[in-house]
Design brief:
285 residues, alpha+beta, Immunoglobulin-like, 6-stranded mixed sheet, 5-stranded mixed sheet, 33% strand, disordered N terminus
């Protein structure tokens, strides 16, 4: 951006006091700014790339013959550089700007100075990256059951699912207590995260969550995680089975057969000894 050489740009940024400043002190209350400025071709740019900031609404004030003026300066306490331009008769204006060479984000203030009044546009921010493309957002951290401890006092008080067992596609209603009053709570099913719903606690911190378990969810044990916008957290497990019922116990008891087998073996051994004794007795006779 160019050096601040024009008095009006200096006035707009508050760097210089003069006749125009006195006029601003006597000006009526500024009106609301028009539409936010646009940045083209993009607000994410490569170092040294050219871009344009444009806007509308900076028209001549009705109480002065002075022409309006638009300034664009860095959004810092004491900007040392800036640009200025006079808008067209219909209030449209634009700046052709060169992006800085250093990577980072840069914010600029834009002001319409009408001599007897002024107003500010929404600030404009550009981001300079090595290739001119937005930096990908970091991937969210993987959910680990139990990594975040449950908030003390939160507990499930009732459920339509028996012993936290349900089937994919089943509608479940669960009631939880212990959240903060009117806290907004989001319920997520893990492992593959699926938002089941958002609920608002009542004045007593109780939420009633009715949700449908997604059809096609893998059978097995999953985690229901509840997170409130006031910082509350609660987890519990839910097991999905094909019919929504707890798995039947299929292991047969081997204690009784073992006892019976031991008795039979003992009886057989006794009979064999007795038979041998009788045979020996007959031979002696």
């Amino acid at each position: 951006m160019s050096r601040l050489t024009r008095t009006r740009v200096a006035v707009a940024t508050g760097l210089t006091l003069g006749t125009a400043t006195a006029g601003l002190m006597l000006a009526p209350v500024a009106f609301a700014a028009p539409a936010a400025p646009t940045v083209s071709p993009s607000s994410t740019l490569s170092p040294g790339a050219e871009y344009t900031v444009a806007g509308v609404g900076c028209t001549q004030a009705s109480d002065t013959d002075g022409m309006p003026f638009v300034s664009m300066v860095p959004d810092v306490a004491e900007p040392q550089s800036g640009d200025g331009t006079e808008p067209t008769a219909d209030g449209a204006w634009s700046f052709d700007v060169t992006a800085p060479m250093e990577l980072g984000s840069y914010t600029y203030r834009l002001t319409c100075d009408q001599y007897t009044s002024e107003f500010s546009y929404d600030k404009v921010t550009i981001t300079v990256t090595a290739d001119g493309k937005p930096v990908p957002a970091p991937a969210p951290a993987a959910f680990v059951p139990g990594a975040t401890p449950n908030t003390p006092g939160i507990a499930a008080t009732s459920s339509t699912a028996t012993s936290n067992v349900a089937a994919p596609g089943q509608e479940v209603t669960k009631t939880y207590k212990g959240f903060k009053a009117f806290e907004k709570v989001t319920l997520v099913l893990h492992s593959d995260p699926v938002v089941l719903g958002t609920y608002t606690a009542d004045a007593n911190g109780v939420i009633t969550a009715t949700f449908t378990l997604p059809a096609g969810t893998t059978l097995g044990t999953h985690t229901l995680a509840l997170d409130g916008d006031a910082g509350s957290h609660f987890e519990e497990t839910i097991t999905l089975t094909a019919d929504g019922k707890a798995l039947a116990y299929t292991g047969a008891s081997v204690a009784l057969p073992l006892v019976a087998g031991t008795v039979l073996v003992g009886a057989g051994a006794g009979a064999l000894v007795l038979s041998r004794r009788r045979t020996a007795g007959a031979s002696q006779a």
